[in-house]
Design goal:
The chain is mainly beta. It has two domains: 194 residues, Cupredoxins -  blue copper proteins (Immunoglobulin-like), CATH 2.60.40.420; 171 residues, Immunoglobulin-like (Sandwich), CATH 2.60.40. The strands form six sheets. Strands 3, 13, 14, 16, 18, 19 and 21 form a seven-stranded mixed sheet that branches. The relative contact order is 0.12. The structure holds copper (II) ion. The site of copper (II) ion (CU) has 6 residues, from loops. This is Multicopper oxidase with three cupredoxin domains (Includes cell division protein FtsP and spore coat protein CotA).
Length: 463
Amino acid sequence: MISRRNFFKGAGAAAVGVAAISKAGAAGLPEAMIMNNANTHVPPLPANGRPFNPVVTLNGWSLPWRMNNGVKEFHLVAEAVVRELAPGMKANLWGYNGQSPGPTIEVVEGDRVRVFVTNKLPEHTSVHWHGQRLPNGMDGVTGLTQPGIAPGKTFVYEFVAQRPGTFMYHPHADEMLQMAMGMMGFWVTHPKDPALHAVDRDFVFLLNAYDVEPGSYTPKTNTMLDFNLWTFNSRVFPGIDSFNVRQGDRVRVRVGNLTMTNHPIHMHGHEFVVTGTDGGWTPPASRWPEVTTDVAVGQMRAIEFVADAPGDWAFHCHKSHHTMNAMGHNVPTMIGVDHRGVAEKINKIVPDYMVMGDKGGSMGGMDMPLPENTLPMMSGEGPFGGVEMGGMFTVLKVRKEQKRGDYSDPGWYKHPPGTLAYEWTGALPEPKRSASAGGQSMPVRNKPDVEVTVRKPSGHSGH
Ligand SMILES: [Cu+2]
C-alpha cells in the first residue's frame, strides 16, 4: 500500500501541496512516499510533467514525484525494511521508501531531475546513478565525488536525464554490505517522443541475491559468491508475480543485475531480441533472435517479443541452483539410494540438513520439517502438481482474453484438446540405446542393496 495523504486524490491535491511547499521555500523536501506490500503496482498515468508510457515493476512500484518550477523532484529514503521474500519467509533488509529494491524512478529524456536522499541507516551512504550521463559531482561515489551522507542527513542530486534507456541506482558506500542488504533500484528514462520504442507492456525487475541462513532473518553480508536466495526484485518463486499479457502484445522486459554473478535469463515459447543494453537502444541491424540472454554483473538488458503463443510459459534464470531456495551446501548426491530414515536421523544432529531426493531430486514427496522462516528449496503448486522451482523463476501468462492494461493474474492456462502431453499405455518397441563403453543402462534401485557409503562431491565449487 502506498501511504501518503491525498495521493489518490489526484492533480488538484498535488497542486495544493506544491503551493504550500512553495510558500515554505523551494528547498522544502517532497513528501517521501512509502510502499510496503509486495504486489505488482500498476502506476497511474503521470499527473504532471511530459507524457510517457509507464513501466510496471514486478512486485514493486514507481516513485511519485512533484514538479517544482520545471524540476521533477523525488524523495528517496534509505532505511531498514522488512521484505517478504515469498509467503512464509521474511528478511530484514535495507532498502528505500519501505521496500527492497527501492521504487523505480521514471523520467523523460531531457527532464531536469532533483532527487533528495535522506539517510535513515546507522551508517553513511550515497547513491550512484548507474549508467547515467551527469556532472561528475552528481555521480555518488563516496570519497571520490562527495562525502558520505551521514545518518540523519539529506543530500540533493540534480542532473538532466540526457539519454533514454534503462538504468539502476545503488550506494557507492560500504558497497558490499549495503548491496548484500538489498539497497538498489531501477531507473527508466523514457524517450521524448512516447511513440518511439512504444510497446504494449513494459516490465522491469532487478536481479538480486541474499545469503540468509534457514531460520534467521538477516542476510550475511560478508558472503562473496555463495548466496542461497536468488531473487527478482527481492522475491523468490512462488512469491514472484507472473507476467500477464494479452496475446499479440508487444512486450518488453527490462532486467538489471546487481548480484555478484551472471544470470542467463531464459524464456519459454517465444524468441526475443535484445533491444536495449547498458548503453542505450541497440541498432535494429545488430539484433538476432534468442531464447536466453546472459545478464552480467552490473548490466541492464531490455528484451522484446510479440507474445503470440497463448499459455503459461516458464521465465527463469537458467542456472539450476538459481531456481532453488535456501539450500544447505555440501550435500551428497543420493540418487538411486533410499535414504528415508537417514535424513530424519541426521536432522536430530543438524537441524537444517536436507538431502537430494533418491528418485532424481524431487523434494515434493519429502516431509522435511523446516526451521522457522525459511522456504522449501523447490516449491510452487501448478495445475499438475508441484512445480519444484524456487528463486529466479516466474511465469509469462499469454491470454487472448487479457484486456489491454489488465495486469491481473488470469489463473492457469486451459490447454485446448489435443495440445497436452499425455501418458502412453499402449505397446512400445524396444528403444535403441547407446552401445558405447559404459553406456549400458542400469536398473533403478528402490531399496539400498549394499551398505551406503556417503561421499562428499569432490571439488564443490560454489558458483
Ligand atoms: Cu541466475
